[in-house]
Amino acid sequence: xxNETAPAKQQVDEESLEGQVKEMYRRVAxxxxxxxxxxxxxxxxxxLGYPADDLDRIxxxxxxxxxxxxxxxxxxxxxxxxxxxxxxxxxxxxxFIAARKVGPEGTARGVAGRTSASASLMxxxxxxxxxxxxxxxxxxxx
Length: 142
Known about the structure:
This protein has 142 residues and is an alpha/beta fold. It has helices spanning 14-30, 42-47, 52-56, 60-64, 73-76, 93-102, 115-127; strands spanning 83-87, 107-112, 136-140.
């Protein structure tokens, strides 16, 4: 029987990788029209199943830098008056949609892992005339 050796494991500098990912998503938040190796924005939300009616009722600026991976509101079945915590809220698209679904008696809070994402969501909250904006909040996780 031949002596087989396990393939050498490639070393990953976790700190460097984390820094690169954070920098890329900072760039997405700051300039959603830049060049990225992944899709983002309104087209992506629609391909993932977000109803156009929901998207039309939230700030377009929150959708521009959307880089999500799926639509899950059909699983949550949110009701008026409920409270939502959106961990990793990013652009705020899901936070705004959740706020609409829970109505003015509920709350939707977004927790962003990046200061730039949190600032981007807060700019969208402050810029909107959406009547439900008062039940939306944001916080940076670090």
